[in-house]
Request: fold
Amino acid sequence: MLKGKKIIIGVTGSISAFKIPVLIRLLKKEEAIVKIVMTPAATAFVTPLTLSTLSENPVLVEPFNRDTGEWNSHVELGLWADLFIIAPASANTIAKMANGVADNFLLISYLSAKCPVFFAPAMDLSMYKHPTTQQNIKILQSYGNFLIHPAAGELASGLCGEGRLEEPENILGIIKSFLTTKDEFAGKKVLISAGPTFEAIDPVRFISNYSSGNMGYAIAWEFANRGAKVLLISGPSHLDIQHPNINKTGVVSAREMYDHCIAHFDETDITVMAAAIADYTPVNPEVRKIKKKNKDLKIELKPTVDILETLGKQKKSGQILVGFALETDNELENAKKKLKNKNLDLVVLNSLNDPGAGFQHETNKITIIDRDFNEYPYQLKNKSEVAKDIVDRIKELTDNKQYIKA
Ligand code: CTP
Reply:
């Protein structure tokens, strides 16, 4: 899949550099052409000989060869590559990149690179969390570089937390999805909400539902793979997602979900509300844990704001709004009511009566209904396939400008 793609890996000084030989092997298996640049510090962690043998290319550490005086052209290298990934990216190199410091071959290559640049931080937990590092990461992202989030787990220091270099298999996946991204939705901004919300009863208890986030995450992934810039607003979910076109924001309650959706809705072309947002929230969540008493407990609930309905009222000409309807009775009739009352362009119906559909399944069975009440039923499919069907249907709308009205 990566046949002939030219990739530079920039290796910096970190224990996790031991994962780079595996990454090179994986890229070579995909028939990519790999060149390695290293900071002098990195050579203490993994040898240039290992990396040159595996990449089948000379490893570049210095701007020139001290024996022959021959110059290594960082400019040529920067023009050559389809993608430059700095992995592991140490706190030191990230700080230098953010400030334009150019005191080694890796840094001058970075400054000369004309291709997309990814960086995969690896460092100890406290270094990663330090405001300076976080600020530098933000600076690099603001310049258009793509962050590959470090994983959480055991660190070289013996501590446990965020800061591990992402696994080579996952880095490969990110590179592959980036280099094979289509441009069908290029320039489009998409907002997806996903997952459940948690409504606090007291500091340790909450009201929620069984939503896993699978459906919304699959839609986000599909849009991102087709070139859209996706803002994924997710309620609590065990799912992880890393794609250069996806920016994920985590929220907990319906109120937070509302605030984030409203804040970004104006700038989005397409919005898909796949989240299972709580319809009710406790009137007075307790600040302290509710103690057990030997009598009934009543929790008073009040309705949450219907986000989709609010967005439907704010929708402007050219914006597409898609909602979900999870029904147990009178499915089609109820879904059509939601479509009309919430001013949607499409509603995606899943019925809890269909085995394998709805929450906590890898599969889903949907019917999409459009504004003219045309019904498009689909077979039971894997959620990633269902996401393709939903995005295909939305694509038809974006291609049909007549259809998009406020
Ligand atoms: N939704 C929302 N804000 C809420 C509740 C739901 O934006 N407070 C959205 C969901 O994301 C979904 C759609 O509304 O896209 C329909 O959700 P669903 O739970 O099926 O229906 P409700 O409108 O909540 O009505 P009911 O529970 O009575 O079926």
Q: What stands out?
A: Residues 28 and 85 are 15 Å apart (CA to CA).
